[in-house]
């Protein structure tokens, strides 16, 4: 039971950490929607192009894929338990993924994007994902050693994850990969590949949730599209681009997934709450599949391709289909997911966004005449409503206990440095000119990052009472040196009056700590 609790704690902790990235993506999507309504600041970082890139990238590479990657481990834990050493490597994999997300967000925030629809971040960051994949392989290898006889799905899964890091670096490569080569074309084989990738996930989720042994039937319906997908990828890489008709044929093979998923769902024996979430996911997936095949007809595609109807299509695919995959996976383990109000709120909001964007798409195509402004107001409202779902995971401590003076010092540090640093990263390029300060947009971001890190030290001090004095003293030492450097830069004329203000602020905080906290703590300790 103790080992199970350790694994459950790992899942619960990282589900809630990773959903914070999902919440950030939602917030940035709302901000982008507000920008489209004409409300924006002249901020170097918080501009519509950067915000849109981060929003889409977090939706695609944040919470959802990380949680889906836990699926084999959840299933192994169900069948044979978990491996303690394997869990350590799974944790390293997760941390490496978080590092990738931080690099991705910051680089996009500072304007480094590729201008692509779904692969906007710098190619070099794929090496971080590949490294995380190495930890993932080690973790999976250690987990599967618990089996006396390896099931077929384990062998297939292990083969895929071994190939994945190399395939990632090849397929995402800007020269020989599939990214740029599918931007302007109909990319039917690309759609087939993305749809195909979801099928084994559906199979494993059903196997995870099923009460008793699940036996998949009608497998020819996924084997045939698989052969054609790999055939089109190799043909594109080694010979020449596919014609529209060739991609069209590959696209229409996805219709075989409709009867296949129907058969799997009907054969499953899953508890009602999880089965409802899985049904929502499958219905959304099949809707996108059918709609996508209709839009792929040339006479229709040239009207709707890359307008808001396609964006709505993507929201249905990612926001409902894939997201509710994750919900069905974890609904029996994360207690907050068992509150229908949150799930229904998110579903209602995403359907609202889908409908609004679909209407906007028909308006852009000339079939309707509705003011775009009104549609984007509704889009923003539904976006705000989607954030209600996250409230299930936001734990606000309303305890009115009396904080010690040292705790209050660290709370002030969190607010001033932690949130202040983030605020400056987002708005400094807009605020500095208002006060007549120069802003180069280079070294300042390094300074703001260090300021934020000081706030994190304050947070660690607040959360770890046993180390609170040491960590608080560390923040003082940092402030002394930072204050002295900023004063030196001001005195030498290398920085302006803003450097003196920063120096004075840190120096004042230092003396407040020394007068009211430091000596008191030493005396109490003695």
Short account of what is shown:
The protein has 526 residues and is mainly α. It contains 20 helices and no strands. Among the domains are: 1-185, no CATH class; 405-524, no CATH class.
Explain the overall architecture:
- This protein is an all-alpha fold.
- It is globular and about 75 Å long.
- It starts with a helix and ends with a helix.
Descriptive labels:
about 525 residues, mainly alpha, 20 helices, about 75% helix, about 0% strand, disordered C terminus, transmembrane helix, Cyt_c_oxase-like_su1_sf, Cytochrome oxidase subunit I profile domain-containing protein
Give the tally of β-strands: 0
Order of helices and strands: HHHHHHHHHHHHHHHHHHHH
Radius of gyration: 26 Å
Silhouette: globular
How confident is the prediction overall: mean pLDDT?
82
**Structural class of the helix and strand makeup?**
mainly alpha
Largest sheet: none
Cα end-to-end separation: 43 Å
Percent helix range: over 70%
InterPro entries: Cyt_c_oxase-like_su1_sf
Protein name: Cytochrome oxidase subunit I profile domain-containing protein
Organism: Arcobacter caeni
Keywords: Membrane, Transmembrane, Transmembrane helix
């Amino acid at each position: 039971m103790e080992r199970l609790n350790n694994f459950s704690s790992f899942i619960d902790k990282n589900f809630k950490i990773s959903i914070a990235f999902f919440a950030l993506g939602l917030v940035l999507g709302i901000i982008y929607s507000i920008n489209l309504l004409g409300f924006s600041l002249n901020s170097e970082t918080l501009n519509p192009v950067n915000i849109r890139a981060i929003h889409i990238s977090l939706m695609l590479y944040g919470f959802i894929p990380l949680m889906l990657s836990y699926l084999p481990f959840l299933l192994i834990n169900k069948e044979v338990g978990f491996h303690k050493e394997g869990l350590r490597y799974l944790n390293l994999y997760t941390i490496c993924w978080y590092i990738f997300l931080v690099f991705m967000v910051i680089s996009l925030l500072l304007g480094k994007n590729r201008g692509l629809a779904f692969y906007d971040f710098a190619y070099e960051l794929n090496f971080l994902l590949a490294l995380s994949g190495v930890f993932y392989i080690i973790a999976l290898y250690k987990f599967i050693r618990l089996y006396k006889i390896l099931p077929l799905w384990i062998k297939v899964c292990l083969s895929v994850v071994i190939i994945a890091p190399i395939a990632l670096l090849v397929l995402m490569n800007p020269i020989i990969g599939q990214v740029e080569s599918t931007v302007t074309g109909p990319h039917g084989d690309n759609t087939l590949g993305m749809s195909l990738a979801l099928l084994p996930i559906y199979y494993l989720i059903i196997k995870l949730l099923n009460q008793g042994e699940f036996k998949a039937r009608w497998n020819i319906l996924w084997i045939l599209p698989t052969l054609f997908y790999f055939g089109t990828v190799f043909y594109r890489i080694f010979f020449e681009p596919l014609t529209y008709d060739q991609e069209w044929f590959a696209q229409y093979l996805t219709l075989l997934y409709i009867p296949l998923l129907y058969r799997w769902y009907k054969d499953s024996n899953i508890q009602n709450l999880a089965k409802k979430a899985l049904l929502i996911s499958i219905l959304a997936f099949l809707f996108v599949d059918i709609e996508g095949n209709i839009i792929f007809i040339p006479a229709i595609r040239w009207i709707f391709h890359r307008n808001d109807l396609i964006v709505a299509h993507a929201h249905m695919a990612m926001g409902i289909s894939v997201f509710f995959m994750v919900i069905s996976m974890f609904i029996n383990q994360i207690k907050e997911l068992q509150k229908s109000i949150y799930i229904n709120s998110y579903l209602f909001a995403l359907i609202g966004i889908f409908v609004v964007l679909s209407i906007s798409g028909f308006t852009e195509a000339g079939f309707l005449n509705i003011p775009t402004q009104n549609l984007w107001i509704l889009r923003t409202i539904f976006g705000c409503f989607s954030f209600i779902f996250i409230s299930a995971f936001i734990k606000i401590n309303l305890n009115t206990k009396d904080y010690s003076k040292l705790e209050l010092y660290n709370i002030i540090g969190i607010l001033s440095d932690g949130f202040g640093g983030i605020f400056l990263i987002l708005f400094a390029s807009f605020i500095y000119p208002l006060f007549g300060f120069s802003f180069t947009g280079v070294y300042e971001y390094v300074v703001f990052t260090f300021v934020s890190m000081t706030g994190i030290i304050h947070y660690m001090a607040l959360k770890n009472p046993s180390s609170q004095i040491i960590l608080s003293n560390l923040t003082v030492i940092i402030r002394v040196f930072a204050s002295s450097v900023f004063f030196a830069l001001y005195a030498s004329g290398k920085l302006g009056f803003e450097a003196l203000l920063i120096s004075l602020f840190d120096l004042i905080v230092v003396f407040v700590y020394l007068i009211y906290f430091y000596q008191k703590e030493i005396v109490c300790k003695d």
